[in-house]
From TrEMBL:
This is Histone-lysine N-methyltransferase SETMAR. PANTHER family: HTH PSQ-TYPE DOMAIN-CONTAINING PROTEIN (PTHR47326:SF1), TRANSPOSABLE ELEMENT TC3 TRANSPOSASE-LIKE PROTEIN (PTHR47326).
Amino acid sequence: VAQAFVENPHLSIRNAAKQHENTRTSVHRILKLIKFHPYKVHLVQELNEVDPNR
């Protein structure tokens, strides 16, 4: 299961559970054991020289 997420980090827990004939809870526990954390990439604006300091 862990290797599937290394190869495809966009894989959902639900789809990984289906592929490996496992429960979603088990897949989530495996990811927690290998210290994978769910997150979504958020695009932000880059800072320019003219931007005020904060």
